[in-house]
């Protein structure tokens, strides 16, 4: 069955009491669950792993997974763990290199598409890697004693890898195919899913807690002409039109595996895991609003940006903040209505680039602008304009 359908069925089963879920906080080295919580409110930003003797920062994208098990009233299940070398904890090793102090080495393994990680014996953390056809053809690592960067690399299956040992001692590098994480569901993924937010609206972090969720696509929208509409047809009918437009946005966002975070007047904020999904959703929304007699004369303004976000609890609901959110809200103000303003990060995403190149009915124009709150720096942006109805 499609992965998303299985996930949504598990969420619904939890809501009606067939299953229960819990949030597992995983050590980045041994991948064991160091803390388990039945709700997001039990997640803490720092965790200690006794097995590896390290402290690690909790990240929704890599360190928090959602797991399901039967409700004990239906079938009791005894929970157990393999040892640190068990089959679920240590995935298959695809590259292993022992480097002397200062040594460099180049390898070119054929890598299976999916999730991988690169780690080193004695160093905390790891480098997360996704292997895909559109990935980079090469990568260079100068491994230092302070550990690994937080970003995720996207590499081609036949990428050339260069390693340099700058740690001050002998170094054992291990590249692992983390196949288990292809099927696992992370907190970053599930909290950006509309069905989860609909079924578990009460799930939120403790007030004042801030947790990284990795990179998300954040979009803001607003309606052009809504003030004129209120003046023309009166408050009650115009409010109905605005609510109808919210229904369209909610549906297209959910169909593209995104989540509507909140409404602000006539505007909405939504999040997606992939930039191309957000782009498709907003193009469909604009098309449907333009084709409906009920919303005739109204145009949707849209701003899109992709980057790291922080999860927080605002007004008892899970929300997001950070510079990515701030920039997305500023881009919406540059939209004229019926178009989308996207950042260079979105434009350069491989899936977005392919979608725009193959669409045949979208005009993409470069744009430069200063954004309020960003030290008067000028940003290279892009305006996406449908030249005909989007299919």
CATH homologous superfamily label of the largest domain = Nucleotide cyclase, GGDEF domain
The major sheet is characterized as: 8 strands, mixed
In the CATH scheme, the class of the largest domain would be Alpha Beta
- Topology as H/E string? HEEEEEEEEEEEHEHHEHHEEHEEHEHHEE
- The number of strands is 20
Shape category: globular
Distance between the termini: 27 Å
Walk me through the structure.
Strand 14 and strand 15 form a beta hairpin. The chain has three domains: 72 residues, no CATH class; 87 residues; 183 residues, Alpha-Beta Plaits, CATH 3.30.70. The longest helix is centred in the middle third of the chain and has 21 residues. It has ten helices and 20 strands. The protein starts with a helix and ends in a 5-residue tail after the last strand. Helix content is 26%, strand content 40%. It is of the alpha+beta class. Strands 13, 14, 15, 16, 17, 18, 19 and 20 form an eight-stranded mixed sheet that branches.
